Amino acid sequence: MSKIVVLNVDDDDVTLMLHKMLVKALGFCDEVENFISGESALEYLQSASFSAESNYIILLDINMPGMSGWDFLDKIDHIDGLKAYVALVTSSIDSRDQEKAKNYKKVIDFFIKPLHKNHLSSFFQKVKLLLEQ
């Protein structure tokens, strides 16, 4: 199986730390990377660190200063060979965000913060099924 890399993208350090702890506790991936902005995560995916052989699971905040989660999703659609599976993780309770998320083929799940272990486990199971196809 290809390498699985989780990218946590959120403008809050505490959220990044908690999500990384949850991801590691579930043991689903080979690597976890934290990014404080959409721009820094995008730079990573556009750099030599990116591997078309890897599967990228992205836990993405929507409302961030600078590049929003929506802007990030628009940008990653143009990265050739990117195998990405996204869970939007947001404090927004606006139902329009959930509707908008349906327009992005890479978005697999949508969670309202705080993210719980059972949410993440469910998301990872959906990704696992997609990877087995």
From TrEMBL:
InterPro entries cross-referenced by the UniProt entry: CheY-like_superfamily (IPR011006), Sig_transdc_resp-reg_receiver (IPR001789), TCS_response_regulator (IPR052893)
Domain Response regulatory: 5-128
Modified sites of kind 4-aspartylphosphate: 61
UniProt entry keywords in alphabetical sequence: Phosphoprotein
Superkingdom, natural source: Bacteria
Gene Ontology annotations of biological process type: phosphorelay signal transduction system
PROSITE patterns: RESPONSE_REGULATORY
CDD domains: REC
This protein's record includes keyword Nucleotidyltransferase: no
Name of the molecule in the record: Response regulator
Organism lineage: Bacteria, Pseudomonadati, Bacteroidota, Flavobacteriia, Flavobacteriales
